[in-house]
UniProtKB/TrEMBL annotation, chain A:
It is found in: Nucleus. GO terms for cellular component: spliceosomal complex. One of its GO terms (biological process) is mRNA splicing, via spliceosome. It comes from Sanghuangporus baumii (Phellinus baumii). InterPro entries: PRP38 (IPR005037). Pfam families: PRP38 (PF03371). PANTHER family: PRE-MRNA-SPLICING FACTOR 38A-RELATED. Belongs to the PRP38 family. Keywords: mRNA processing, mRNA splicing, Nucleus, Spliceosome. This is Pre-mRNA-splicing factor 38. Required for pre-mRNA splicing.
TrEMBL record, chain B:
One of its GO terms (molecular function) is zinc ion binding. Keywords: Coiled coil, Metal-binding, Nucleus, Zinc, Zinc-finger. Residues 20-92 are annotated as: Disordered. This is C2H2-type domain-containing protein. GO terms for biological process: mRNA splicing, via spliceosome. InterPro entries: Matrin/U1-like-C_Znf_C2H2, Snu23, Znf_C2H2_sf, Znf_C2H2_type. It comes from Sanghuangporus baumii. Residues 44-77 have a biased composition (Basic and acidic residues). One of its GO terms (cellular component) is spliceosomal complex. Residues 168-230 form a coiled coil.
C-alpha cells in the first residue's frame, strides 16, 4: 500500500529498510502532503522525474517538516530498486540531486566495501548543492557531501549504519 | 407492585398489540380535533410522507437482510467468515497500482468563496473534496488524499495495491528521455536569447533612425524659419523706409 515496503524486499542491517529512517521522521513523512500527493505509486523510473525537480538536499526543516529529499529517500527504501538502477542514477551526471539521493541511499543500504568503491569517484564532483535544514538554505558541494557520507555516522539528521561507518574507517586507513 | 408471573402475562398481552375497544368517550375526543390535527392550508408546504413508499423500502431491506443471513449460514457451514455488510459490486483488480497522471488541483478553490450548489448534504456539490468514483465527500486535503491512496479507492479503480517493478532498461530510457527534454529546453532558451538579442538590436536601430530623422526635420525647419525671417526683415526695412509699418508680425 501507500506506506508499506515492497513485497519481497530484503532486510537491510537486519530490519525493514524503511526503519532506517527514524520513527518520528518517518511518521512526519507519511503525514506530509508531498508524500501523499507526489510520492504515491512511484516506481524506480518515475521517481527520477521527482528527483530532478528537487532543488536542495536535506533532512528536515522548520518544525520537523521533511524535505523532498528525505521523502524520496524513504520512497527508495520502500521500493528497494536493484543495484544496477542505482548505478544508472549515479551515472546520470547532469542530474546532480538524483546523484546525491542515490549516493545517500547507497551509503545507507550497501556493504562498506561496496559503498567505498561506488562513492569514491564522486569525490571528484565539485558541483554546488543547496542544503536545506532548520536554519534555512546553505551551500555545500557534492564532494563535501560524499566525504561526509564516507566518514561520519550521521548525515542530514539521519543515523547511518555505525557498522558500515566502522568498516569504512578501516578500509580508509588501509587505503592511505 | 406486580408479581413476576403477572408481569409476564402483561408483557405477552402487550406484544399481541390488540387495539383496545373504542369507547364512546374516545369517539367524542376524536371529533374535537387538537391543534396538531388542524387542516389549515398554511401548513400544506410541509413534506408529506409517502407511507407506502417507505414500507416498500423496509420490505426490500428486510428481504436483502434475510438473503444475507441465509448466505452467511451457508458460508458458516463451509467454514468461511460471514459477510458483514451488503455485497458490493467492485471490479476485480486487474492492473498494478498506477501513478496519477493528472493534477489533483487541491488548491484550485483555495481562498475562494463558493456557493454550495447542493444543500441536501450528500453527493457532489458539497463543500470539501468529492470522489466521483466512490461517491464520497471529504472535508480536507489530508482526508481526501488518504482516501484516494486507500485500498478501497484503488479497488474501485480496479487496481491492485502493488506497484510495477521498473527494470534497468526502463530507468535508462527514462533518463535518456529526461536528458533529451532538458537539452531541448536549454536549446529553446538559447534560441530565445538570440532572438531576443536581435529584437533588441532592431528596436535600438529603429529608434536611432527615428531620432536622426527628427533631428534632420528640425534642422530643416530652422533653416526655413531663418530664410523666411530674412525676407520678412527685408520687407520691414523697406516698409519703414516708405513710412508704414507691417501688419504686426510676431517675428521681429
Ligand atoms: Zn474514491
Amino acid at each position: 500500500m501507500a506506506n508499506t515496503t515492497v513485497r519481497g524486499a530484503t532486510a537491510i542491517h537486519g530490519q525493514n529498510p524503511q526503519f532506517l529512517v527514524e520513527t518520528v521522521i518517518r511518521n512526519r513523512i507519511y503525514e506530509s502532503l508531498y508524500w501523499k500527493e507526489r510520492c504515491f505509486a512511484l516506481t524506480a523510473a518515475t521517481l527520477i522525474d521527482r528527483a530532478i525537480e528537487m532543488n536542495a538536499i536535506g533532512g528536515v526543516y522548520g518544525n520537523n517538516v521533511p524535505t523532498e529529499f528525505i521523502c524520496l529517500l524513504l520512497k527508495l527504501l520502500q521500493i528497494q530498486p536493484e543495484k544496477e538502477i542505482l548505478i544508472e542514477y549515479l551515472q546520470a551526471d547532469e542530474f546532480k540531486y538524483l546523484r546525491a539521493l542515490a549516493a545517500m541511499y547507497i551509503r545507507m543500504t550497501f556493504q562498506a566495501a561496496e559503498v567505498y568503491e561506488i562513492l569514491e569517484p564522486l569525490l571528484k564532483d565539485y558541483r554546488k548543492l543547496r542544503l536545506r535544514d532548520v536554519g534555512g538554505y546553505s551551500l555545500t558541494y557534492m564532494d563535501e557531501f560524499v566525504d561526509q557520507l564516507l566518514h561520519e555516522e550521521r548525515s542530514l539528521t539521519l543515523a547511518l549504519s555505525f557498522w558500515v561507518a566502522l568498516c569504512l574507517a578501516q578500509s580508509l586507513t588501509l587505503s592511505f | 407492585m406486580i408479581a413476576p408471573q403477572d408481569r409476564r402475562i402483561i408483557r405477552v398481552e402487550h406484544l399481541n398489540l390488540i387495539p383496545p375497544p373504542v369507547t364512546k368517550q374516545q369517539g367524542r375526543m376524536s371529533e374535537r380535533k387538537g391543534a396538531y390535527a388542524s387542516t389549515a392550508s398554511d401548513t400544506n408546504f410541509r413534506r408529506k410522507w409517502d407511507k407506502e413508499e417507505y414500507a416498500e423500502k423496509a420490505r426490500q431491506r428486510d428481504a436483502e437482510e434475510k438473503e444475507r443471513m441465509q448466505e452467511n449460514e451457508e458460508r458458516l457451514k463451509t467454514g468461511k467468515k460471514p459477510r458483514k455488510g451488503a455485497k458490493k459490486d467492485v471490479p476485480t483488480p486487474t492492473e498494478l497500482m498506477k501513478l496519477r497522471d493528472y493534477d489533483l488541483e487541491l488548491e484550485k478553490n483555495l481562498n475562494k468563496t463558493i456557493v454550495v450548489a447542493n444543500p441536501s448534504g450528500r453527493g457532489p456539490g458539497q463543500p470539501g473534496f468529492f470522489c466521483e468514483k466512490c461517491n464520497r465527500t471529504y472535508r480536507d486535503t489530508a482526508a481526501y488524499l488518504d482516501h484516494i491512496n486507500s485500498r478501497a479507492h484503488l479497488r474501485m479503480l480496479g487496481q491492485k495495491t502493488q506497484i510495477e517493478r521498473s527494470t534497468v532498461e526502463q530507468v535508462r530510457e527514462r533518463i535518456a528521455f529526461l536528458r533529451e527534454q532538458r537539452r531541448e529546453a536549454s536549446k529553446a532558451k538559447e534560441f530565445d536569447f538570440n532572438k531576443r538579442l536581435a529584437e533588441v538590436k532592431a528596436k535600438a536601430d529603429a529608434e536611432r533612425a527615428a531620432k536622426k530623422a527628427q533631428k534632420k526635420a528640425e534642422k530643416e525647419k530652422a533653416r526655413m524659419e531663418l530664410l523666411k525671417d530674412v525676407t520678412v526683415q527685408q520687407d520691414d526695412d523697406m516698409a519703414q523706409m516708405m513710412g508704414f509699418a507691417g501688419f504686426g508680425s510676431s517675428k521681429k
